[in-house]
Amino acid sequence: MSGDDIEDDSEDAGTEGESNRVPVLLVRGDREYLVEPGGEQGTDLGVLEVPTDVQSGDTIETHLGDEFQVRRLRGPDLFHHFERTGAPMVPRDIGLVIGETGIAGGDRVLDAGTGTGVLAALLARAGAEVVTYEQDAEFADVARENMALGGVADAVDVRTGDVTDEVDALEPSSFDVMTLDTADAPAMVEHAPDLLVDGGFVAVYSPFIESTREVARTAREVGLANVTTRETIQREMQFDDRGSRPTTAPVGHTGYLTIARNE
Ligand SMILES: C[S@@+](CC[C@H](N)C(=O)[O-])C[C@H]1O[C@@H](n2cnc3c(N)ncnc32)[C@H](O)[C@@H]1O
């Protein structure tokens, strides 16, 4: 066997007597399965038996002799394999949030709403400690399971509740960054000057221009600096024998990202 040990030492990953190891990806071409160590997976190429001590980089054969590669879950895999509730942010937009706010190890982030939890999990994987609020109790439960799957249960505190009701319970000037992905984001932007450290950022993601205008207006009204809104559009390129051009598939817009700074 070779590769990195994929054992998850987070407390939430399991209890004594149960498997405390996170699922791994078994990959062959377009085929991809998420399977727990010690588990079994039926495929059209035969049955895969995953050893309990499986490691990233291993190769496992089906009982018919076809090989699958073992991989640990990385950030983009979480987007595809987390159980979905609230519409998750796509990885490229999360990259913009991290790039524009500088979220890094040691930062404290206030996130709302949790939804599927893809943003919260990727921020934690970048090293941040995340407090995230989800008003839907069932969504919050799913998000906690997703955090365990992502190996970040210790770094992400999923709290059930409407974040706008919890503002008074939050310590002033205790967050380096606020990330908001809710329709009522303006109500939280109002509190950004109180909740953020000096020089901290608020990042608001919204699919619609109407709420985005409201966010930008509120950010200026409460005295935040460097208020900037950009559409998070990208075009995939297509390369074939006839030439190269952006794909004609009509997917480009995912949202608007407003960034502002507490000064
Ligand atoms: C678009 S999803 C967030 C997706 C998340 N950013 C991700 O990457 O997976 C929005 C979520 O916010 C929750 N929500 C909306 N308003 C909220 C509030 N005021 N407090 C807490 N959660 C809220 C909704 O229930 C929904 O699950």
From TrEMBL:
Cite the CDD domains for this sequence.
AdoMet_MTases (cd02440)
Q: Which domain of life is it from?
A: Archaea
Which InterPro entries does the annotation name? SAM-dependent_MTases_sf, TRM61_C, tRNA_MeTrfase_Gcd14
Ranges for domain tRNA (adenine(58)-N(1))-methyltransferase catalytic subunit TRM61 C-terminal come to: 92-238
The entry lists its GO molecular-function terms as: tRNA (adenine(58)-N1)-methyltransferase activity
Q: Name one GO biological process term.
A: tRNA methylation
Biased composition annotated in UniProt, kind: Acidic residues: 1-15
Q: PANTHER family under this entry?
A: TRNA (ADENINE(58)-N(1))-METHYLTRANSFERASE, TRNA (ADENINE(58)-N(1))-METHYLTRANSFERASE, MITOCHONDRIAL
UniProt keywords, alphabetically: Methyltransferase, S-adenosyl-L-methionine, Transferase, tRNA processing
- Segment Disordered: which positions? 1-21, 239-263
The molecule here is called Methyltransferase domain-containing protein
Gene Ontology cellular component?
tRNA (m1A) methyltransferase complex
